[in-house]
Amino acid sequence: MGEKLRILVWNEGVHEANNEPAHIGEIYPDGIHGAIAAGLRSFYPESEITTAVLADDQHGLSEEVLAETDVLLWWGHIAHDQVGDAVVDRVQRHVLGGMGLIVLHSGHFAKIFTRLLGTSCSLAWRNDGERELVWTVKPSHPIAEGVDSPIVIPEQEMYGELFDIPDPDDLIFISSFAGGEVFRSGVTFTRGKGRIFYFSPGDQEYPVYHHPQIQRVLANGVRWAAQPGLDRSAPAVTNPARDWFAER
Amino acid sequence: MGEKLRILVWNEGVHEANNEPAHIGEIYPDGIHGAIAAGLRSFYPESEITTAVLADDQHGLSEEVLAETDVLLWWGHIAHDQVGDAVVDRVQRHVLGGMGLIVLHSGHFAKIFTRLLGTSCSLAWRNDGERELVWTVKPSHPIAEGVDSPIVIPEQEMYGELFDIPDPDDLIFISSFAGGEVFRSGVTFTRGKGRIFYFSPGDQEYPVYHHPQIQRVLANGVRWAAQPGLDRSAPAVTNPARDWFAER
Amino acid sequence: MGEKLRILVWNEGVHEANNEPAHIGEIYPDGIHGAIAAGLRSFYPESEITTAVLADDQHGLSEEVLAETDVLLWWGHIAHDQVGDAVVDRVQRHVLGGMGLIVLHSGHFAKIFTRLLGTSCSLAWRNDGERELVWTVKPSHPIAEGVDSPIVIPEQEMYGELFDIPDPDDLIFISSFAGGEVFRSGVTFTRGKGRIFYFSPGDQEYPVYHHPQIQRVLANGVRWAAQPGLDRSAPAVTNPARDWFAER
Amino acid sequence: MGEKLRILVWNEGVHEANNEPAHIGEIYPDGIHGAIAAGLRSFYPESEITTAVLADDQHGLSEEVLAETDVLLWWGHIAHDQVGDAVVDRVQRHVLGGMGLIVLHSGHFAKIFTRLLGTSCSLAWRNDGERELVWTVKPSHPIAEGVDSPIVIPEQEMYGELFDIPDPDDLIFISSFAGGEVFRSGVTFTRGKGRIFYFSPGDQEYPVYHHPQIQRVLANGVRWAAQPGLDRSAPAVTNPARDWFAER
């Protein structure tokens, strides 16, 4: 896998800063972003993989940084409201212009996700350490390539339906939990020229991002979402003259 | 609900004829088709609801009968190969022309279903009397109207992914089973002018078709699939002259 | 068609107030909203059909009014930015809760539309009085029922691709224009429990809303989008205990 | 583009054998298949690109050949009924197992296409040498990468709606013709593990397959449809024991 992609893993980083839960430093000594980045590096050793957190200047998401990013991964949970609206505007514009976006777990309530989807993105949840099974339902999709069905996650927070999202472009994974709930855990959307992948497994209390199969899904997601050769411009209104295309 | 629809419930009727399983006469004294028809009658007392079985002449699916049918429900299991190809051709033609079709449970392997879908329609199964939970994931769909989420079915055969179907037009229900498997248990398709609904709960060993919520889903499905005012003709090739529409 | 629906036709009403274009009073003596409402009344004589404009208190879109509305139609063009954000929040909440929404023509840039879709909703346009042909591509959809294919509109503003919208749930109509451009002119979306229909024909310069076939499409759209029996509440986050559904 | 793919271009080859139309030898001296293959070679010089025709033994589509094919392109027109059913069965099995399939122009009526789609695949047509414009409506799709919108084809047979196909997974291109008709000219489907792309431009009377932009679309389609690393097996029914996945 010799791709040279520019990947940015964003994490609010507040759980880590607050050492909450108390064992987060054990399971994620380099932060959730550090674990995700490490997993991606094992797949894309030639890619440029960086991280950023909420506390960084402009949350580490300046115009310059986004312009040089092929795929942005987003993890947030308890500080969604601290993300500045100007930054959300900027990320949205880059997604519409073709930047890939991968939203993870509790990022379902991130401003950028609800902004792009237009729904509440609400769901049912229960933190009871239940076994999650992640089943592939679209094996032809690039994100399912080489992925076990089911992926077995011994302990995880339950996320259940109704997941209030628009109909996805593709439904790739459905999870079940020990308690019987189900969840559309891997779904894709397009907005403008950008490709978006939401994947729910992964939490601050459980070491899910060290699971080799979860790492493979994220690596597949990055490759699918990346459009490195694309001119980065969002669709815009035009007022063409009649027969403007005649010279072609 | 004062609709006057013409509804035909088809069942191969072989389990009933063979008294297999031995308790089928207790749970379905009027056959599976009889139970389904009774459920529909409680919703549509003014509709014309009839039944037919494999042993009937032309399987009860003559040209005349189909021409007078708004929605056909299909239950089959162990005799799919005994359904004549000419009858399958005829049913397909009527679906393309606008007749509604509701395929139930083991009907996933019916000739008419694989013919219309183009895939193997294979799945995983296990008959272990597991609890099935049917979760609504598209609450805005007419088939989900007034349906509990989840529907709780105490005992049922497990059907699990991978369910080899094309991407449905709408995914309305996802089931989980006690063993952890999941299944896209309520899905719609369109083929030609016809509307198709597949719904998996319902089996010869369990009294699922007496469940009030399952009856409601089938009643909703019938209303959604019916197009009583439509001219019954399948799309066909045309060779129009330029500007043929100019008179409009 | 004996439906008793509660239908609200909203128009910014600025073109009419400014008498711009000068002939608007001739083609729409009761305003664009008046023409749309009149068309709907011919289909639903027993329904309650009202109108509201931007200049009304709260733009005529108070909590009380929306709570009593099954379907809201939206026409806007040159005053999108004058629609208050609090009203947009309110309309969005009602759509997520199940109110139907039909967005018309230049409403593609309305705040409520871009809010619900998450994209720029930009397009190409040219006001050259070109013939528009509206072709049905999903004849099984309720909105296509009884609609000619193509609908011929002698003169209309051109709207062309790229129309920057998410993939619709259903693509029902595609238009072509005399200049050769194409446009996805009839598309549906769901957001939360609400059904949304966008339909592009209709403009302040051309008498399109008097066209019988256009009136039929809008009438079909209203019936499709309405869910009069639905509890009006947007999906919300829940935290259920394990086995909460066991009593069912 | 260093991909090493195994690409097979199939053409019935009857127009060429019959020298009908009389100028086919001028516009396609190496046959339609030869022109398509040449276009692909310019994009994938390291790939193995072969051709086959109806007159070949087993139509050149033996089990051994298909097992070594990543993507099959299919052009047919006047001899669909001469394609043996056993060959169609075999091609379908390989598609369900993951072989890519690209169906071209009049191949809309090929047995393999109607088999996989389940509809009539009928359409409107008129051979009047009309200008076709091919507009991109999903710019984020890999098949649209680097493609002009519109592609201008000076003369082409008209294909118009209603195109009786199931809702595609993705609608990428919509064409308009000088006479005003529109057509969903670039659409994708998945069946089993296989990816299918239908693309309508290209005819025995017009030199469309020499158009650089058409060649680019086909090259993009091949790359999108190919899954060279995939185990070639169609989905099949399974009967797993409870907790079969527990060892993972």
From TrEMBL, chains A, B, C, D:
Residues 6-225 form the ThuA-like domain. This is Trehalose utilization protein. It comes from Arthrobacter nitrophenolicus. SUPFAM superfamilies: Class I glutamine amidotransferase-like (SSF52317). Gene3D superfamilies: 3.40.50.880. Transmembrane segments: none annotated. InterPro entries: Class_I_gatase-like, ThuA-like, Trehalose_catabolism_ThuA_prok.
